Amino acid sequence: MLQKLKQSWLSNLRGDILSGITVALALIPESISFSLMVGVGPMVGLYASFCIAVIISIVGGRPGMISAATGAMALLMVSLVKDHGIEYLFAATILAGILQYVMGVLKLGQLIQFIPQSVMLGFVNALGILIFTTQLVHFVGATWIMYALVALTLLIIYILPRFTKVIPSPLAAIIIVSIIAVAIGADLKTVGDRGIIESTLPLFHIPDVLFSLDTLWIIFPYSLSLAIVGILESLLTASVLDEMTDTASNKNKEVRGQGLANIVTGFFGGMAGCALIGQSVINVKSGGRTRLSTLVAGSFLLFLIMVLSDVVNKIPMAALVGVMIMVSISTFDWKSVINIHKVPRTDAFIMVATVTIVLITHDLSKGVFAGVLLSALVFVWKIAKIRVSTSDEKPQIRTYRIKGQLFFGTTTSFVASFDYQNDPQHVVLDFNNSHVWDQSAVTAIAKVKSKYEQQDKQVNFIGLNEESKLIIRKVGITLSSGH
């Protein structure tokens, strides 16, 4: 137990502490921006990021993943705050957390395995593009100094690791560029321009709403959407980090952890959140691996709010924009574009469609849902082909060999594949290369049997596997001898 605890928390002390500090700095402008997007004060997003990061570091299922306030979740809360006020936001956050915890208990985290690779690639590529495009707003009306400092940030990030890895290059870049900006007195946009940070602790607060069915009716649709989107983004981010670090994560534990984190956040004046792939990539690229990196990110964020708010307010956005551009480059899967001509056309189409829908809607969940739906349709189209061949090996006996999956999508062509009137008196249906999946398939078999019996012909079934026999018996169809 002690060894496992040490491995989860203390096996990478320097890397986790430094990466956590880097992530905390990157969280501040994002959290403030998401708060303003929802229509609430900047501290709502900052409190959310602190609470969620600290809680998820303890109860989450993916070590090293950063969870906080996110843009996807913020978008879902805009109309709720506009129509009903901030207290309903806190209540919806708590209910979303409860729903997520229940989903985790029901082990819905396992559903992530049904998201195809083409959709995963579309998800990360769309996210890479979105992270990059959201940084462009900072260049509006900017001077050449802004461009120069962003370029300097990127140079430090990519060149410093060639000489030393004692300090994460993104953290070094933020510090160096901030010092330069202050020293030259450049007229640049700073973190403080996004919203003034107040040095106050989050306090326990029960949402000031009427506890009634009417309130539940108002917040439930928002909470359900928040719960689903939060789980989807968190599990997809966890899968990306699994591949980046070549380690496994506990998806159902992560879902329960996200639920607990949002419940606590709602009681401490924060908005709902989930995993952030951008900050998670920063954490991994900066050397973060264990739960400690996530805990440090959340704790140091609170330290920045309480003690160093004046310093943080002066950090130039140029430094943070440079870091986020690095994240966008690292997130985008360049091999998927280079090798797009090597993959099946349907997979390439699904990846492009996922990216396109995300970019149009600015909603990652819509792109992923569409990608999964397209993948399902393509899969059904591919397996919805059944081949029936005939042979007359014995006099007065015709054998039909069935190849393919027999389910609702293939029953029509299956029933039409037989020559009921001209076949001999004995007909054999060989299912050695087929499988019976559902009631529609059983009904189709019964229909074929009935058509032959109407012609006073005997039909036998052979080669049915045990699962096919079982579903046929459950439906109540009696097969002729020889099956």
User: Count of helical segments?
Assistant: 20
Strand content: 5-15%
Taking the alpha carbons of the first and last residues, their distance comes to 56 Å
Which outline best applies?
elongated
- Can you list the strand order of the major beta sheet? 3-4-5-6
This entry's quaternary arrangement is single chain
Strand tally, please? 6
Q: Major sheet: size, sense and barrel closure?
A: 4 strands, mixed
Mean pLDDT: 87
Helix content: 55-70%
> What class do helices, strands and sheet pairing give?
alpha/beta
What integer value in Å does the Rg equal?
A: 29 Å
Contiguous uncertain segments of 5+ residues: none
Helix and strand succession?
Answer: HHHEHHHHHHHEHHHHHHHEEHEHEH
Describe this structure in words.
- The longest helix has 33 residues, at 213-245.
- This protein has 483 residues and is an alpha/beta fold.
- Helix 4 (71-84) packs across helix 5 (86-105) and helix 11 packs across helix 14.
- The protein has helices at 2-9, 13-38, 42-59, 71-84, 86-105, 117-135, 144-159, 169-184, 213-245, 251-267, 277-285, 291-306, 309-312, 317-331, 334-338, 345-361, 364-383, 411-415, 439-454, 466-475, and strands at residues 67-69, 273-275, 387-394, 397-406, 426-436, 458-462.
- The radius of gyration is 29 Å and the shape is elongated.
Topology:
Layout: H1 2-9, H2 13-38, H3 42-59, E1 67-69, H4 71-84, H5 86-105, H6 117-135, H7 144-159, H8 169-184, H9 213-245, H10 251-267, E2 273-275, H11 277-285, H12 291-306, H13 309-312, H14 317-331, H15 334-338, H16 345-361, H17 364-383, E3 387-394, E4 397-406, H18 411-415, E5 426-436, H19 439-454, E6 458-462, H20 466-475
